[in-house]
Design brief:
Strands 1-2 form a two-stranded parallel sheet. It is 63% helix and 2% strand. The N and C termini lie far apart (49 Å). It has one domain. Helix 1 packs antiparallel against helix 2, helix 1 crosses helix 7 and helix 3 packs parallel to helix 7.
C-alpha cells in the first residue's frame, strides 16, 4: 500500500512539474514571441494529453525509487554532504547527465527507424512545430524508455538528494526549452565554445525539421562523434 501511495504521489508531482514548467515557458513565448503558437490550440491540447499520460508512466519507476529509498534503503541516494568526498559532489550530476544523454541518443536513433517511428515516435513528431508543451508528448512505449534511466542510475551511482533534484531540474528545463521554437539563451552562449557542445532550441529545432540529425538531449558529443550533427536552425 505504501508503494501505491508513493506512485500516486509521484504521478501528481511529475504532472504538476510538467504543467508548471511548460506553462511558464509557454507564457514566456506568448510574451516574447506573440503569435508563434497561433493556430496550434488543437495540437497543444494533444501535447498536454500525451504528456499527462507520460507523467503517469514516469511516476511508476520514480515512485518505486522513492519507496525503495525511504522504506528499504535500496538506492545510492544519500543526504549527508560529508558522506562522500567533496570532489565527488559535482561529478555525480555530470555522470547522470552524460549517462542519460547517451541512453537518449541511441534510443532516439532507434525510434527513428521506420518500424519504431510508426509504432511510437510519430506521436512526438506530430507536433509541427513543437511547442513548450511538447517536451513530454510521447507514446507510452517511448515514455517508458525514457522513464527508466534516472531510476536505474540511483541504484548504481551515489548522488546527494539535492543534486539529484538539480539533475531533474536540468532535465525538465532543457526538455521544455529545446521545444519552444525559439532560442531563449543568449547568442553569446549558444555560439560560444561551450555552446558548441550544448543542445539548445536552435539545435533541436533542426532535428524536428530534418528528422535524421541532432539526436542528443543535453550534449552534442554523440552527434559529433557519429556524424549526425547538422548545426543550428535559424533562431
Amino acid at each position: 500500500m505504501v508503494l501505491l501511495y508513493s506512485i500516486l504521489a509521484m504521478t501528481l508531482i511529475v504532472a504538476v512539474r510538467y504543467l508548471a514548467a511548460s506553462g511558464l515557458f509557454a507564457l514566456a513565448t506568448k510574451r516574447v514571441r506573440p503569435g508563434l503558437y497561433t493556430g496550434l490550440d488543437a495540437q497543444i491540447r494533444r501535447e498536454i494529453g500525451w504528456s499527462l499520460l507520460s507523467a503517469a508512466i514516469y511516476a511508476i519507476p520514480a515512485g518505486i525509487v522513492a519507496w525503495g529509498w525511504q522504506e528499504r534503503g535500496w538506492t545510492q541516494i544519500y543526504t549527508g554532504w560529508n558522506d562522500y568526498p567533496l570532489w565527488y559532489l559535482p561529478l555525480a550530476p555530470l555522470i547522470y547527465l552524460f549517462a542519460h544523454d547517451t541512453w537518449f541518443y541511441w534510443t532516439h536513433r532507434l525510434f527513428h527507424r521506420p518500424r519504431w517511428f510508426r509504432a511510437a515516435h510519430a506521436v512526438h513528431h506530430a507536433s509541427r512545430p513543437p511547442t513548450a508543451w511538447a517536451a513530454m508528448s510521447f507514446h507510452p512505449i517511448e515514455a517508458l524508455s525514457g522513464a527508466i534511466v534516472i531510476p536505474l542510475l540511483v541504484f548504481l551511482v551515489p548522488i546527494h538528494v539535492a543534486l539529484l533534484g538539480a539533475v531533474l531540474m536540468v532535465m525538465t528545463v532543457m526538455g521544455v526549452t529545446n521545444h519552444m521554437g525559439w532560442e531563449m539563451f543568449p547568442r553569446a552562449l549558444v555560439h560560444s565554445r561551450a555552446g558548441d557542445w550544448l543542445i539548445t532550441a536552435s539545435h533541436h529545432q533542426r532535428h524536428h525539421e530534418q528528422y535524421r540529425c541532432n539526436y542528443g538531449l543535453y550534449f552534442r558529443f554523440w552527434d559529433r562523434l557519429c556524424g549526425t550533427d547538422r548545426g543550428l536552425s535559424p533562431p
